[in-house]
Design brief:
Number of helices: 6
Number of strands: 16
Helix content: 10-25%
Radius of gyration: 17 Å
Oligomer: single chain
């Protein structure tokens, strides 16, 4: 008899760093694992090592510094990093295990988990020293599919994601903010993220990219702005996708997915 695998669980470690324990595999997205991310300050302590250690695969959305931090990636040693093709080339030049699987599913060895890179609209703030390709990810095991949006603006073709996955989207992990009270282009606020969940028909949603990082000038920003995203997302989701369940986590908190 095949042993029964544990219930899938999702842990938010702050900003866009999420640990997916699914189908006997551990995947981590956009790992920021240190106390601070150079110019940006982290509210609270660094993620506990037990919560992110020994991943089987890293999912990297793009190479902006608040998503792709080389010291954090090097803490994971030779774990494959699934990302866009030109990003993977750049990572390999830095001594990391960049993996390009654009346009096809990547089957995680030894498991029944597969991953696919999908579109993200995030062409703003190009960097002369790093490629600027951006993408989200579909993560799937039989009977369970997660959409990890990465950084993206809202686009109509998100409605095609269930067709690409050949399955409903069980959990959408969507960005709802930034590291300041005002968003630049190529992002979603809480309202747009809720509309994205409605477009893809997600059964549950976890908001990320909020409440964690801030610029050193945080004292000049309106008081309490870092705590607004989660409640605003819950309210917006009740309007745009009332059948979608919101899991608003604190950094380090885990939800087990029934």
């Amino acid at each position: 008899m095949t042993p029964e695998l544990p219930t899938p669980s999702i842990t938010w470690l702050g900003h866009s760093t999420v640990v997916l324990d699914i189908g006997g595999a551990r995947l981590i997205t956009d790992p920021l694992l240190r106390k601070h991310n150079w110019p940006l300050r982290r509210r609270g302590g660094r993620p506990a090592k037990a919560s992110w250690s020994q991943p089987d695969l890293v999912l990297l959305s793009h190479l902006h510094h608040d998503h792709a931090e080389l010291p954090s990636l090097r803490l994971l040693r030779d774990v494959p990093v699934l990302t866009a093709a030109e990003n993977a080339v750049w990572l390999r030049r830095k001594g990391l295990n960049g993996l390009d699987a654009e346009g096809k599913w990547y089957d995680l060895p030894g498991t029944d988990v597969r991953v696919r890179l999908v579109r993200a609209d995030h062409g703003h703030r190009p960097m002369p020293h790093r490629p600027n390709s951006a993408g989200g990810h579909l993560v799937q095991k039989p009977g369970f599919t997660v959409y990890v949006a990465g950084d993206t603006s809202l686009y109509d073709e998100m409605s095609d994601l269930p067709q690409l996955a050949e399955a409903p989207i069980d959990v959408a992990i969507v960005p709802i903010g930034g590291w300041g009270p005002r968003l630049s282009g190529g992002h979603m606020d809480a309202e747009q993220a809720a509309r994205a969940c409605a477009l893809i028909g997600a059964r549950a949603a976890i908001p990320v990219h909020w409440g964690t990082l801030h610029a050193p000038v945080v004292g000049r920003f309106p008081r309490g702005w870092m705590d607004l995203g989660g409640p605003l997302f819950q309210q917006a989701l009740s309007r745009h996708a009332p059948d979608c369940r919101a899991w608003v986590l604190a950094p380090g908190e885990t939800v087990s997915v029934p």
